[in-house]
Amino acid sequence: MPGPLIILAYPKIDHEKDYVYFWTPFSLLMLGKALLDTGFEVIIFDGNQASIDDWERLLSAHIERAIAIGISIMTGGGQIGHALELAVRAKGRPCCPPIVYGGPHVNVLPGETLKHPLVDAILQGPGQNSIAPFARALQGDPELLLQVPGLRMRRGGMVSGQKNTPRAEQLGRYPWELLDVERYVRDDPGIAPRTLNYVSSQGCVYKCRFCYELTYEGKYSAMPAGRLLDDVQDLHGRFHLSGLKFYDADWFINLRRSAEFADGLIERGIRISWAASINPNDVLKARKHQPNLMKLLADSGCSRLLMGVESGSDRVLSEIVEKDISTDGILDVAQEIASYGIRGSYTFIVGFPGESEAEEAATYRFIDRLRRLTPTPETRVHVFAPYPGTPLYERAIQHGFCPPDDLEGWSNYDYYRSQTPWTNDATVSRAKAHTQMVLHPANTR
Ligand code: B12
Ligand code: SF4
Fold it and tell me: Is 251 within a domain?
């Protein structure tokens, strides 16, 4: 007999037009796994795959036996607005259980989130640590709530749980049965026709000053290569995958794990194209500690590496971003990547607080230089948007940026539009003009 039910919702994200990539709600798969392992029943609603009418149907069929609804939110992309719409529909039902929110936005602005009348509780930090204790506490002694990691909840007065210590346990062996996986398999140009996304680590060790990974005590931990290989082998066979796109913040932090994974793909004969993100300093470190890494990656099917270059100005890189690398160093790394036939996918940010027009122009010149490499790299330019909790957010406020102060305000916030007084529509147009992605169909491996 199924246990008590938790409904987990990943609200829709309003993506830019013609966006070609695809995504899977890993946050909810991780929470789902923790709940299933402790005897709860779970339903996942993915707003990127289903409509608001589907949500209404789900509520009609299941809300009466649900003990909680969990909703994931990140800052921007309209996701918070869609989350509130899901909450309004649920609250309109007479038997709505408590609605708890988690995710990147909650991790950085827990107090502000909890102020909203449609929010009953928040769980800050990795939800795989907190969701099952929360569900258990809802069923039993309210005193148990005081032990739930990361909890803040209005119940009579304010109830606060313990601190949720970041650690990335329970990664992998995701409960794919909670999703219709075929709907997430995608022809990803630059990887392969049957590509699925995957997350194998949490956190980052670098300290780029605009990045969310610096917030909420971001700690790094990753699945060991062997376990990751077992999972990939299983997925490859089960869903006939030809491609894998890692969504880890930086997949290459542990160089030994990276080499073992690539080696393992070759040894086990898993023929798959794959892509992941890398910090340029990983490549420099690999030259010392894993000198054959790049060749191994290419031999194992790595077809694209995504790297945040951020700027073509050495002053911006060192004084504003703290990227710990110069433009010469980045060019050297990009040349190495290209020399193994791996396509670079390089992202940039313009409009940093204190960046001059000449420095922005240097970024565009640097992009032109990188695009002379073969294979021609993809380039994507974003306009700086200060994200709460990051060091550059504070600096942006000093430069005159006025942040939104409620959930609705944060919903329509992203880096495809000008968010600061020192950028404008022209900054956005220049950024778009230098964004060039590979859009032709993927090659089969
Ligand atoms: C994949 C991805 C996307 C996908 C979709 C997301 C998806 N389905 O997961 C796409 C490509 C659509 C996307 C878009 C954007 N993204 Co994005 N994305 C990511 C990425 C790379 C991976 C997300 C992921 O699966 N992580 C793994 C899971 C396990 O981690 P998690 O989501 O944080 O979940 C954990 C906790 O947060 C918590 N949790 C999460 N949900 C819930 C819910 C409950 C109830 C509970 C209790 C806990 C909980 O528990 C989870 C397990 O530990 C992350 C970076 C990263 N590596 O995390 C950025 C990230 C989430 N994106 C970010 C941003 C800013 C964006 C954009 C808004 C960028 C923009 N344009 O301005 C856009 C929005 C859309 C638009 N208009 O363009 C930021 C969010 C920062 C913030 N303050 O919210 C991140 C963190 C990147 C960064 N380092 O800055 N993104
Ligand atoms: S390397 Fe990437 S994920 Fe890590 S702090 Fe820098 S921008 Fe963020």
Answer: yes
In this prediction the pTM is: 0.95
pLDDT single digits (tens) 81-100: 999 999 999 999 999 999 99
Which residue do the tokens 């600061």 mark? Answer: 420
Q: What is the mean pLDDT of residues 177-206?
A: 93
Please return the burial class of 137, using the count of CB atoms within 10 Å of its CB with bins 0-12, 13-18 and 19+: buried
Q: 228 C-alpha vs ligand 2 centroid, how far in Å?
A: 22
**Cα of 69 from ligand 2 centre, angstroms:** 31
**Measured from the CB, is residue 211 less than 6 Å from ligand 2?**
yes
Domain span holding position 297: 185-384+423-433
Q: And the tokens for 436?
A: 């060039």
Do residues 223 and 82 share a domain? no
The residues, any chain, with a CB within 8 Å of residue 277's CB and separated by 6 or more, are 246, 248, 249, 250, 251, 305, 306, 307, 308
Phi, psi of 255 (to 5 degrees): -70, -35
3-state helix, strand, coil in the chain (%, to 5): 40, 15, 40
Ligand 1 geometric centre to CA of 157 (Å): 31
> Cα(first)–Cα(last) distance of the chain, in Å?
44
**What is the dihedral angle through the alpha carbons of 258, 263, 266, 272, rounded to the nearest 10 degrees?**
0
- Shared domain for 195 and 344, answered yes or no, is yes
Short-list 336, 334, 339, 366, CA closest to 350: 366
Ligand nearest to the CA of 209: 2
Nearest CA to ligand 2 atom 6: 208
Query: How many domains is the chain built from?
Result: 2
Boundary-marking domain end, from 160, 194, 212? 160
Assign residue 347 the CATH number of its domain: 3.20.20.70
What band does 73 get if pLDDT is binned at 50, 70 and 90?
Answer: very high
Using alpha carbons, select from 232, 227, 114 the residue that is nearest to residue 176.
232
pLDDT at 104 over 70: yes
Nearest to 67 by CA among 19, 124, 24, 4: 4
- Here the tokens at position 291 are 């000198």
Q: DSSP 3-state assignment of 87?
A: helix
Other C-beta atoms lying within 10 Å of the C-beta of residue 288: 8
pLDDT in tens, 259-304: 999 999 999 999 999 999 999 999 999 999 999 999 999 999 999 9
Looking at the domain assignment, is residue 389 inside a domain?
no
**Is residue 418 helix, strand or coil?**
coil
If we measure between CA atoms, which residue out of 94, 89, 99 comes closest to residue 119?
Answer: 99
Q: Which two tokens stand for residue 134?
A: 């929360």
